[in-house]
Amino acid sequence: MVRTIVLIAVAGFLAACATPSSQEGASQDYGQYQDGTDHPAVKMLFGQADDAAQAGNWSAALTYLDQARRIEPRNPYVLYRQAKAYAAAGDSARARQLLERARVFANEDDEMLSYLLYELEFQL
User: Fold this and answer.
1) pLDDT tens-digit profile of 95-112?
2) DSSP letters along 106-122, please?
């Protein structure tokens, strides 16, 4: 009985955190936000990833960014940050994959993101 209640509570929490793909899709303009998102959990995960990256702990940084991508899988800023972390960790092949995926979901009017993606591609 307790397991059922916990399972229902967890499922409800996850459903509330999920981004509905039918309503927002790839056309959402994430560039309107300072950090590329307004989701509080993703902002927190970005901060934790930045702290881990500054400490040189790329594994932890990538773990935080993977969690952010689970929340907002079509956010090109999350994909860009993951690509940048993989590039810094030395996995340029994975960084290129994420960079291409970020381009798919990026809004063509977002000049800042376009510049960041171009800059990272040049570094790879």
Assistant:
1) 999 999 998 988 888 887
2) S-TT-HHHHHHHHHHHH
Going by C-alpha positions, the residue among 71, 70, 117 that lies closest to residue 98 is: 117
Q: What's the CA gap between 45 and 49, in Å, rounded?
A: 6
Distance (Å) of CA 31 to CA 40, 88, 93:
16, 24, 26
Q: Are 24 and 74 in contact (CB under 8 A)?
A: yes
- Write the pLDDT tens digit of every residue in 21-40: 444 444 555 444 556 777 88
Domains of the chain: 23-123 (1.25.40.10)
pTM, two decimals, is: 0.70
Burial bucket for residue 53 (CB in 10 Å: 0-12, 13-18, 19+): buried
